[in-house]
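User: Could you walk me through two proteins back to back? I'd like the raw sequence and the structure tokens for each, with a short line separating them so I can tell where one ends and the next begins.

Assistant: Of course. Protein one, sequence then structure:
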Amino acid sequence: MEENPRGWIHGDETAKAMLSRILTERPFLFLPPLHRVPLRVGNVVEIAGPSPSAKSQILLHAAVNCILPEEWKGIRFGGLGRMVMYFDLDCRFDVLRLSQILKHRIMEAYRSTNNTYWKEKGEHQKNDAPTTHMYLCDDELFLDCMRRFLYIRCYNSFEFLAALKAMHSHSQRESEALGVSVHFLMIDSIGAFYWMDRACQPMPIGGSKRKNVSLQSLAEAVVQEICKLLQMQPVLVLATKATIFGAGTSGNDAQRLAHDVNLPILRSTSSTRAFGKWCSEGKMDSRTSSREGEKLMYREYMPSSWQSFVTHRVHLQALDEIISGGEYGTLLTYASQWVQPPLNIKDKFAIRDDGIFLIT
């Protein structure tokens, strides 16, 4: 439905009109660990953690929830039926994993509906015809969902900038063709080109009158392009970021931070090696609940323009604990904690093909 821009600017909105506008779309229920904070379009969420800490897995499960329809031929899937723009910057996107999660969710919904159907009809009436019909629908629904997943792979910051500039017109064409809008802008991972850009010396483009290209200017350009995209097409931004910690900390920083939190430093010929060894041997509990311990572990490396652009931050961490997942075998466990806004709650969770679930 088209709106009158002049009326929107000059006229106040009534409460009834506001509610009718806001309630036209149902809220998206996030999977753990993103469920603790109310998120909406326009927010920029940074999911930070070492590798591996399930950052990409969270993006994939959120993407599947988004591209699945709410209902398909009378079967409820509970998805949004919206599009996802997925930027793969570290070039490690696993399309087989996405396909596996999506197919499992589809078959799980069919299986649940089939079991409910035969409970109502009685087991003595059971035959293979309805089940065969349901399984024939899988490919059609699978392809319909995958059309709503827009995948873009970039190999450097300039390709990323070019893709962002072209994304609005591209997504607009896809939206018109599919009849749905984009809900998620996913970036995996935002710091993938940091070291490459940092190693390159600032250089002028197109002559000496043009300003130099530097790490800071590239980050500012990325933020500006995402801002333009958000203004033209409001979406929720989810960006993963690998953390730098442990052996990546310099010797001086290690001694200073350890002194600040009153922790010992192992002495050796190399402060950096000693600090890495100290962390790897478990002298520091990586799952400590103290804020000081977390400051020691994680170092911010993204430019200030990106840091100020982010509205929400959550840190992830892999745990040593392994649990039994029944038919899924053993499952790795992870921990999450919100940094912005700060929450004094740490969630433990595990990941299966059918979703992400909390461990109590």
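----
Protein two, same layout:
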Amino acid sequence: MPCDENSPVAVLDRASILLEAFDEDERLTLSDLSRRTGLPASSTHRMLGQLVRLTWLQREGHTYRLGRKIFELGSLALHHDRLHSVAQPVLYQLHATTGLVVHLAVPVGADVLYLDKVGGSFAVRLPTRAGGRLPAASTAIGKTLMAELDPTAALTPPRSTPNTIVDPVRLRREYADIRNRGIAHDRNETVLGVSCVGAAIIKGRSPIGAISVTGPTGTFDPMAASVPVRLAVATIRNRLSGN
């Protein structure tokens, strides 16, 4: 059965072919791109218009070049790779020290995007995975990021459990407390029976990510867990700075 050229897969295939036709600072015309990719000129023209509107490409007269969005995503990917590569050995050491599940995450809007998860058998109980997202305001790792970024971006989280803080006034107070003490807590707010503490990795004056440790609420000691988390954050920050 022939593939529908307007299906999402076909559209993404054409977009990928067009974007990969460019070198870093190369300017190409419609004819250049049609010839280089083998796509019909009419299809190429339509796709170019869509990519320009999305800022994946930039049009300059009769030529096109890679747009702002490409470079933003490339920079973000490099940043995440650097953060992850520096943090990963620290995450494993933190897990070995505490016996708890360890997460590394970065902020994405009102969510957190998990870059890594290190843990034993308890890890399977958690709704987290590398590449997955959760609402920031119901997790310790997310709250410590939102408190340092824009607290108003995460004032109406979905209620994951009866303990999730969904009142904006309470959340503002929570974020203020987190900024003062430098550590965030989650007690049964994301998953019943699960607690965690998290701290942000600050570079300059902005948080670039955060780590957390997670365990069963019945045996979890947030005060004891906060100490190795703070030390791990300081280690990652120093290594990122080259110290």
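Residues 75-240 form a domain with the Beta-Lactamase fold (CATH 3.30.450.40).

Let me know if you want the two compared in more detail.
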